[in-house]
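Give me structure tokens for this 103-residue protein.
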Amino acid sequence: MQRTRDGRGLIALILTFGPVSGAHFNPAVTLADAIEGGLGWREVPGYIAAQVLGGVLGVAVADLMFELPAYTLSTHVRTGPAQWLAEFVATFGLLVVRARRAR
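Here you go.
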């Protein structure tokens, strides 16, 4: 059940912010946009810096919302085939939204 909710959350974010930002939640989207000429290469470092900063701040906000310390070291291994597949699927979704928006 958790996977279904996570997927719906990603779709909601893409649909909400896609028209505003082009769904630039991931450096792969930014690079694809630059490769296709939709974004200048001079802008790419700023987008990627904003994505990294947004991720770091997002972790703190999410933790604080659940009354957890803003930053703690994880005791769980966060790598492996399932995580890489999840990243691929999420990135693919962002790229599809971007491609549909470009039409």
